[in-house]
């Protein structure tokens, strides 16, 4: 029972921004929003996380709505290597040690 | 820096056999965990550990055992393999919250026939 809703798949042209939405309407006040991606069948790779404020790092930007019920991951200039399954995660186990994954969004970047 | 290392990468087992998937991390992380991923699905948590000597169950623990005798190692044991355990297994490690970015290994592909 993942607490997030993501589109099953999205397409993006190479060089354009990829905007991946995520709904998490039941998020608790102390729960972070995490984004990971999985390329082919490799181990998931951390992208970014945030609590309330928008965040940016060398890989992506994370925009969280003021009510925290949804967020958007932005890859500013998508490349073919960004083709992957992207997971939005807001649920952790009770100890805060591990992530609970949903099915994610398959992003296909094409030239 | 090797990060999280899993062995073996590929394994075929017969039903009823036992085996151990090895996981080692060299980042001195307190937290370690095991996930499985079935085709077309997201990852599901099997077991986790918050430190040496401490383990607990995740979402799908049945049929698996773990132990944590050192900070570096977190082996996953399949007691009596079943075809339903055919999957890709990922080991992960992290520091405690709030600095708990989770790092994953490259996976172990297990087929039970």
What descriptive keywords fit this protein?
heterodimer, A: 111 residues, mainly beta, five-stranded mixed beta sheet, four-stranded antiparallel beta sheet, 0% helix, B: 113 residues, seven-stranded mixed beta sheet, 11 strands, 50% strand, globular
Describe the structure.
The complex is a heterodimer of chains A (111) and B (113). Chain A is mainly β and 111 residues long. Chain A contains no helices and nine strands. Chain A has strands spanning 9-13, 18-23, 33-38, 45-50, 55-56, 61-64, 70-75, 84-89, 105-110. The radius of gyration of chain A is 13 Å and the shape is globular. The model of chain A has no long low-confidence stretch (mean pLDDT 89). Chain B is globular. The termini of chain B are far apart. In chain B, strands 2, 4, 5, 6, 9, 10 and 11 form a seven-stranded mixed sheet that branches. The mean pLDDT of chain B is 93. In chain B, β5 (43-51) and β6 form a beta hairpin. Chain B has 113 residues and is an all-beta fold. Classes of the chains: A mainly beta (111), B mainly beta (113). Chains A and B meet through β4 of A and β4, β5, β9 and β10 of B.
Q: What is the mean predicted local confidence, pLDDT of chain B? A: 93
Order of secondary-structure elements of chain B: EEEEEEEEEEE
Number of helices of chain A: 0
Radius of gyration of chain B: 13 Å
Query: What would you call the shape of chain A?
Result: globular
Q: How much β-strand is present in the residues of chain A?
A: 35-45%
Strand element count of chain A:
9
Biggest sheet of chain A, strands in spatial order? 1-9-8-3-4
Largest inter-chain contact set: A-B, 21 and 31 residues
Beta strands of chain B, count: 11
Helical content of chain B stands at: under 10%
Classify the helix fraction of chain A into a percent range.
under 10%
Instruction: List low-confidence stretches of chain B.
Output: none
Q: Counting H and I runs of at least 4 residues, what is the number of helices of chain B?
A: 0
- Tell me the structural class of chain A: mainly beta
Helix-strand string of chain A: EEEEEEEEE
């Amino acid at each position: 029972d993942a607490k997030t809703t993501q589109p099953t798949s999205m397409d993006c042209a190479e060089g354009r921004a990829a905007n991946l939405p995520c709904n998490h309407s039941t998020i608790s006040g102390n729960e972070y929003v995490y984004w990971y991606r999985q390329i082919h069948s490799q181990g998931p790779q951390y992208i970014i996380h945030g609590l309330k404020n928008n965040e940016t790092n060398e890989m992506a930007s994370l925009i969280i709505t003021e009510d925290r019920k949804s967020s958007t991951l932005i890859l500013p200039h998508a490349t073919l290597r960004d083709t992957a399954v992207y997971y939005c995660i807001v649920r952790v186990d009770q100890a805060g040690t591990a992530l609970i994954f949903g099915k994610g969004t398959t992003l296909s970047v094409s030239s | 820096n090797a990060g999280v290392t899993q062995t073996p990468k590929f394994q075929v087992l017969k039903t009823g056999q036992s085996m151990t998937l090895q996981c080692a991390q060299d980042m001195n992380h307190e937290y370690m965990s095991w996930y499985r991923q079935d085709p077309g699905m997201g990852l599901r948590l099997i077991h986790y550990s918050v430190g040496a000597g401490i383990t607990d169950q995740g979402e799908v623990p049945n049929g698996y055992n773990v132990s944590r005798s050192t900070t570096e190692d977190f082996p996953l044991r399949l007691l009596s393999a079943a075809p339903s355990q055919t999957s890709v297994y990922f080991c992960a490690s992290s520091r405690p919250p709030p600095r708990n970015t989770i790092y994953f290994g490259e996976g172990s592909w297990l087929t039970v026939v």
